[in-house]
């Protein structure tokens, strides 16, 4: 038996609610993710976007009372507008960030507009559905479809959409999906639409615009990113958790994660020699080494120069990073095929989870993680994390961590040092802070930690290096007056003072 028109309309509107919920959350996640990529501090950016989005949806719900006539036509116009604006949100924000000194007002405007329009939809759907069922049934059905759609969007976005399509194509795709709902509504409600032709043309124009955007999204991304980076982009990819970009100028290679420089091939040897060799020079025996982070293989390259080392375990969260540095010929040349070496074992996992489930002891543990510029990273500089690390350090072993800048983020540096000193519950640990000048980063800090006092004068360099020498070693451990120790707090999971120290330190220098 063929369903009557009333049943068709009811089913179409519930299906529309389901798709609208998916699209709405995707737009929300797009704005938050893009802002996190461009500005950093993901918790702040997502909190801001979600808060403004939800508030705007409330305002939209309130405004829906002023739509009194032609409810199906109003619903269709709204779908097409949301699809068009939602699809263009990511490219508009990308373009604005590239050319404007402050793109935040535009971010607020777009999020508020999208939120308000999405807020109008549910009340509008409920009012249209009142002709087909009771309020109790309508509310139950609509919100069930809405919440299930939101769940699907939350799963698809990080697991499928961003890794496979990237941010821009994801936006255009869901813009098209929103407009498709408008087209479906045109078909279902065609007998109730006084301006069927104009709505159809409006929908067709939106579809054409979004299709063009979807096809050329990669080209647009390349053009916009070329404005953000100094050099030619030779690789760019969205992994499940971050944006990876590699640039080149002649023989000079730079690697960025979420817009933040990770290394410059012209001076990375200064950083990696400083991270690795002072500790190696203090160890009488070193066979087992653990690297937390360091997916570029550059720290591993330095370790492999020491013939005493039998095995290196490298733990990096993002397989896209380790795969890139295993496959790209330019990057393999830079790390001297360290990631292909039979002595090295790659584990793509969260550093914390790896330490919780692993029972091995290591003679040297290198912590080569990004700066603690958000809570997710700050936890890997906490007393709880360092306690885990120490449980995996052999009796005579040494821990080394990069520790941000003792000049630009002075309090952050000394907080890391203090946290490493005071995390052991029943044994004393000693730290040895030091720093090196890296032209790409400025003064950069490191901290060694061990159960035994570490004497910098006892360091024996086992090979010749581009940067380090016996004379240079003495300078690493001298801190000028503007980098001396300050009173700071231990970085704990409950408070994260390190995050505040880090943000305020860099803000002072680059305000």
Structure write-up:
The radius of gyration is 27 Å and the shape is elongated. A 7-stranded mixed β-sheet has the order 7-6-5-8-9-11-10, with helices on both faces. The protein has 511 residues and is an alpha/beta fold. The longest helix has 54 residues, at 135-188. It has 17 helices and 11 strands. It has 2 domains: 5-228, Growth Hormone, Chain: A (Up-down Bundle), CATH 1.20.1250; 276-510, 3-Layer(aba) Sandwich (Rossmann fold), CATH 3.40.50. 56% of the residues lie in helices and 15% in strands. The model has no long low-confidence stretch (mean pLDDT 89).
Task: Identify the notable features of this structure and list them briefly.
15% strand, alpha/beta, 56% helix, 511 residues, elongated, 2 domains, 7-stranded mixed β-sheet, Growth Hormone, Chain: A, Rossmann fold, 11 strands
Q: What percent of the residues sit in helical stretches (DSSP H or I)?
A: 55-70%
- Summed up, the helix count is 17
CATH class of the largest domain: Alpha Beta
Q: How is the largest sheet built, in terms of strand order?
A: 7-6-5-8-9-11-10
Order of helices and strands: HHHHHHHEEEEHEHEHHEHEHHEHEEHH
Q: Report Rg.
A: 27 Å
State the CATH superfamily name of the largest domain.
Vaccinia Virus protein VP39
Low-confidence stretches: none
Summed up, the domain count is 2
